Amino acid sequence: MITIPYLTALTTYFSYGLLFAFGQLRDFFRNLVDWWKASNLQGYAPICLGLEDFYIRRLYLRIQDCFGRPISSPPDAWFDVVERVSNDNNKTLKRTTKVSRCLNLGSYNYLGFAAADEYCTPRVVQSLKKYFASTCSSRVEGGTTALHSELEEVVANFVGKPAALVTGMGYVTNSAILPVLIGKGGLIISDSLNHNSIVNGARGSGASIRVFQHNTPSHLERVLREHIADGQPRTHRPWKKIIVVVEGIYSMEGEICKLPEIVSICKKYKAYVYLDEAHSIGAVGKTGRGVCELLGVDTADVDIMMGTFTKSFGSCGGYIAGSKELIQYLKYTCPAHLYATSISPPAAQQIISSIKVILGEDGSSRGAQKLAQIRANSNYFRSELQKMGFEVLGDNDSPVMPIMLYNPAKIPAFSRECLKRNVAVVTVAFPATPLLLARARICISAAHSREDMVKALEVISSVGDMVGIKYFPAEPKKAQLEEGRVKEE
What we know:
alpha/beta, 14% strand, PyrdxlP-dep_Trfase, transferase, EC 2.3.1.50, Aminotransferase_I/II_large
């Protein structure tokens, strides 16, 4: 867990307190003005009300130019960011015809498949001509093509499971499938920093939900032991089933799951393991097969494997992989399979082709080179940021590396100053993170060259000095060390 320095926490609280106080003051005077005006909506309750509405109006809108930036090119290592202007103090933004060519440090394009590819793109275009853009139907009503069947077989073989089910949206894979797997009388034990899709899926299931400290197997075991002993609330009957839900790489922290220890504990207490590999499949492991391969965990020990195609594979949609019985059951019961439109055929072809490149089935070694490049790029960029004095979260080999900002004033300052220097970064704040833990999330790609990363590091270092987010002393450079040694001699 993140330990915030006292001074940083104090100044962050003060900044939010100041913003909150001025916002409330402005609302007070706005209400006075509105009280004198006649309203044409007598009897209607406000649609937007509460602290969430206050946060959007008085805090978010002030810096909304830092979010939702439109682009006008593929999300490759470099892309075109459309410039926007505001004539009403940032309440609304209007697009202009101007674009800025920026270094892309925000997209999930881990292996570089999001742009044109010599193997994937011709096959995607061919599938578009054959099947067109959409099936316009769910999987059970005419929305299953030969590509969908091939995709499920390819995915199952790639992740090391007997069968797989593909859905049209990654978020829905969690939120729609968890309620099918477990219901009332069941227990979901979720990592405290799991993705919102997991949280919503767990809430929609009707099962009891308990949380364990982020990536802490010892606390997981304690929670499991206590709730197995207590049983269901009020009746104290045994739980119908228990599912432990974790992520391979946590998207806001860049940390790799302690999967071997968690699997061992779940085996001990006969709990199912549900692994979300949205950010790890294709990005880590010797052959890109995710955290199971990276950490040496047998996929047979993970009961349900979930992942998305929106990151490493340059497409859209998600999958669930498991036993043949599990997948057959989901095909009969999962609303994402029964009612939602199936994944677009060109998107399915993109996934199939990219997996073939990763496995070297395209007749080249580009897949292995991409995997080696993303690993080298990630470790180099992370180590350089740490040497500069930034507080960087996450583990080695992870392409996600958050830089802690904390203070609300530093969120727009860091984002805007980087954009001025043609480096596009993603900043993340409440409610996606806890209030005090705002950060900039860097996502590295195999498409980035060493020159790209050197430029990015120079810009981030310069802006970091300007904004004041280097919370640790920087390591002295080699030239300075050598100069110091000469003076000593």
